[in-house]
Each structure stands twice: as structure tokens, then as C-alpha cells.
């Protein structure tokens, strides 16, 4: 997980910010729910960044 | 490349935060003259602290229907006083009030009500965790929905109530629980041990026949409602379904039952149009709360 974040620090950081925004909107009642939302949004951003990097023209 | 990605993520963030910002802007700009009506308008239309209760899911400003956000469980939002026996809201709509009752096997379906619902269980609780979950759902049910008898005492006849029934296998126990003022946890322990699975399964089977597209494969329980009350089991009846499969705490249950009550009271005309009680926000919250600890513990085990 940490290796993944090191390799994708910019999308990871943006995903973290997105996760914070999602937490503010959804307001989970458990700490694990907060963690899961941030984790999922970071993974989505990392995957999105990887896809864009591979398929968009440079 | 990074700029493009940054703009996509920023857009998603803005979209995620937009509803609350728009609401705040709307609440602030609606009354900027310092008029005395402003406080009342904001009290009715803008979400505030609910004295420890979880917030009601926001579904948009509705100035034409301020009663939409009145709630029977919250002392901060008292219902407006009306003459006893009055059947119309100030806007001229038919008065329907959500209520609750425990019911034994022969007391169901309660046809004297305008409409009725049932908390339908797939099974009896099979372990301690499931028992505690059912008790929590019952506590939310007691907290958020007023007793039918209390509404009757206030002059709202049964024919103007939409009752949500908790099915029990013992009519004597249901009569006792309907009038007792014991601690809710104690009531719920008894109610969970005496759940009538046969009535529950019957309701699920009937709802499945009436609404073939609706899935009833979760762990439940489901809150299923029919309107009018005599339409139980008939094809093309108006059926509402609220899935409580992802609910585990009393606060979550209370929030969903409150939303259920206010939708029943505010929009009976929507029942025939494929009404869905759970907003995206609530679905995501329940999902994150239910699966968060499991997925995170799985990840930490793999480390």
C-alpha cells in the first residue's frame, strides 16, 4: 500500500483530499467508515491517473 | 497531464461538496434583511443541530411544505397545533401521520389504518451480534416513530395513520408492549425474542409478487408498506420498501425510520411512482460503516 502511494504521490494526495471531502459530505458514524472512504477515493484517483497516463497522448 | 488529472479530481470534489454549499448560500441569502420571519424560515428550512440525533438526510429546499422536516422524535421541532379532528394540513393536503404498533399474529394486517407497513425479518436472530443488531433497529424504531395510541389520544384517528407494525408471535405480549413505558432496551429485548417470522416472510413474499423488480435477498430486515391497507397481496398495489440490511446501530435505524416517517407524512402521492427512501448519501454512509472495519482489518492482516 505504501509502495503504491510512493509511486503515485500526486494522485494519492488528491485522492486523500477527495476522501476528506467525501467524509465531510457523507458523515460516516464509525472511524473505519472514514478510513474506508478515504482509502477508496485514493485508490480511485490512483487508478484514474494510471489509466489517463497510459491512454492519453503525451 | 497532471493538470488534466488535477482538474478532474477538483471537479469531483466540487460536485461532492456542492449540495451543502448551495444550501448554506440559500439559507444565508434567503433572508438578508434582518426580518423577524427570517429566523422562522431558517428554522423550518435549514438543517440545524438535532440535539444529539443524527441529521435528517437533506433532499432539497421545500418552502411550500415546511412540515416535511417536522419530526415526532425531536423536541426541537414541535408540530404546529391544529384543532382536534382537523384532517387537512395548512396547504390543504390530507393529513397522514406515521405511527407504530406491536402486533400479534391475528392482529395483522391492521385494516382500520389508512395504510400500514411491517418490519419484515428474514429470520430470527441466530447469534448475539444479530440479536444486538435487531435490538438496535428496534430502539431506532421506538425512538423515531410515535405510538399509534399516542396519536389517537391527540385526536388523529386510526384511519388517518400509516402504522408500521413490528410483528410478534404473541398477541398478549404485543398488547402489553403497546402500552408499557418501560426502558426501550428492555422492550426491544422482549420484542426481538418474540419476532413473528411467519408474518414477516408472508409480507416479503407478497411484496416480491407485487414488486418483482425489488430485491429481497439481503439479510434484512425490510420495512414494507402497502397503501391502502386493504391492498395487501393484491397485484398493482402501492408498495414501499425500505432496506435495513446495512443498518447496525440504533442511530442509523432512527435516522432511516425518521426519513421513512417524514416521507410517508409528506409525500403519500409519491407512493405509486417508484419512491425510494434512501438517498445516495445514506446508502454510502451505511455501506462505509458496515464494511469499513471488515475491509480495513483485512488489509491490515495482509500487511
Q: Could you characterize the architecture of this molecule?
A:
The complex is a heterodimer of chains A (58) and B (303). Chain A has 58 residues and is mainly α. Chain A has helices at residues 2-7, 9-26, 31-55. Chain A is elongated and about 40 Å long. Chain B has 303 residues and is α/β, with parallel strands linked by helices. Chain B has a domain at 92-291. Chain B has helices spanning 2-30, 36-45, 128-144, 148-153, 171-179, 184-193, 197-210, 250-266, 280-302, and strands at 97-103, 115-120, 161-167, 222-227, 238-243. Chain B has a 5-stranded mixed sheet with strand order 1-3-2-4-5. The chains are: A mainly alpha (58), B alpha/beta (303). Chain A binds chain B through residues 1, 10-11, 14-15, 17-18, 21-22, 24-37, 39, 45, 48-49, 52-53, 56, 58, and chain B through 1-2, 4-6, 8-9, 12-13, 16-17, 19-20, 54-55, 249, 251-252, 281, 284-285, 288-289, 291-293, 295-296, 299, 303.
